[in-house]
Predict the structure.
Amino acid sequence: MDRFLIISPHTEKDCSEALKQVLYTGYITHFDWGCADGEHTGWAIIEAKDAKEATMVVPPTHRSNAKAIRLNKFSPEQIKSMH
């Protein structure tokens, strides 16, 4: 399984409903939120087989605005071999 960063924005108007929907899906504890600072976005790191599966943690009403970015780590050796 790969790891994905999920970015799920919503509007200030939709904030309460967006949070409730994530709560009902069971993934509320997976997300960090910027809402209290005026950045109405949730971020989560999820393990999934692909980006489509990873975005399934986002409620359907907000899924089209969500983004899944596959994460990887580089070792010092890999970085040295790039130069």
In short: Strands lie at 2-9, 31-34, 39-48, 67-71. The longest strand covers residues 39-48. DSSP finds four helices and four strands in the chain. The chain has a mean pLDDT of 95.
